[in-house]
Each structure stands twice: as structure tokens, then as C-alpha cells.
């Protein structure tokens, strides 16, 4: 089957700035090229200890990077649900009820408000606790119900990141592969470069070589040059 991305409104859930690009950068480029609407709900951002010369990336720097990436991809909107050091890398301290309600109803980019046709979440087997709780909260927010009472996106996917494979209970290969052109992949790589506090040289899970290698592997698995992999949670055709 194929998805006519021109007709879709995508909501991508990103625990932190750069997760949406690592997981969905090629698809975002492909969807926007086709005429889709793309929105990104970031869950949190704050000062981040890292391996840079200063040993920290500030929230202000990361806000600046978001704006550059948003302009580059021409997102239709983005929002941060829980900004600040109180929440960054600590989303597992927030009650699941609050996280799920934020995604379902309370955010300006909530499912109830935005009524997306496609929702894409991080994968629940990530080693990162913020990814895990975001995925689980989204799973609750997207629970089955009567479509006349609650909005049901037709397509619900989980994106992958190379680092997810570290989990001992990581799931098998993705079961939905989205073909990319070299232009789509190059856009993903360029956008990741705009997250300059987060990009790294190879060998690293966020390096250009890793992004290109994973796209080549997923493409090979479906007989094309390049692809991004997703796990299907709901697909109504």
C-alpha cells in the first residue's frame, strides 16, 4: 500500500529536540514536499550535560536550534509541553495520567485539538526513560474508543532511532518502510546538523554515517535504495 502524504496532517511526538529528526527526518521532508501538514510536540527541554568542551548545552541554545530546524522543514507548528530542568530527562516523575492527558487533550497540539490523521511516537523499547514514558503515554492517549466520541488518527506509528537497538528486548525490524530519495535523506542529515549541540562525528548514534547507514539498511530490506523504518500500531485503510 501507499499513503498519499498530501492529504495527511502529521503529529510527531518528540521527547526532546532532535528525536523527531532522528526518527522521522526523511518522512517529514517527503510529507512536506507532497503538501502535508507537519506538527511537532516536544515533551521537554532543559540544560543538558554532554560531551562538548563546556560540558553542557543550554536550553536557550536548544530553543534556537528548534527554530532553525522548524524553519528548515517548514513545520506548521511546534510546542514544548514541559519545559525546564524540572522535567528534562525526568519525565518518568510525572504521573502517566498527566502525560497522557497533555497529549490527548491539554496541549495546543493535542490530538483532540489538532485532529491529526497520522501520529508518530518514539518506540517504547528505547533505553531512555523520557522516550519510554512518552511512548506509553501516547499509547494511552490513542487507546481504542468510539470515533464519534474521540478523534482516532487513522495511522499510528512508532519511529526508530539507531540507539534503540541497544535494548536487550528491542523488537524485530520495523514492519512499515517509507521509501526516501537522496534529497529526503540529505534534508534529514542537514536538519540534524542544525542541532549542532547534539550532532556528533562517527562513530556515534547521531552521526551522519549512522543516519545514512540505517537508511541504506532499511532500503535494502524492501528492495529500494533508502528508507525509514516504522512500527505500525494502527493502520486504517
Automatic annotation (TrEMBL):
Keyword Zinc: yes
GO biological process, one term: glycoside metabolic process
Keyword terms of this UniProt record: Zinc
Keyword Zinc annotated: yes
Gene3D superfamilies, A to Z: LmbE-like
GO molecular function list: hydrolase activity, acting on carbon-nitrogen (but not peptide) bonds, in linear amides
Name recorded for this polypeptide: PIG-L domain-containing protein
Species: Nocardiopsis ansamitocini
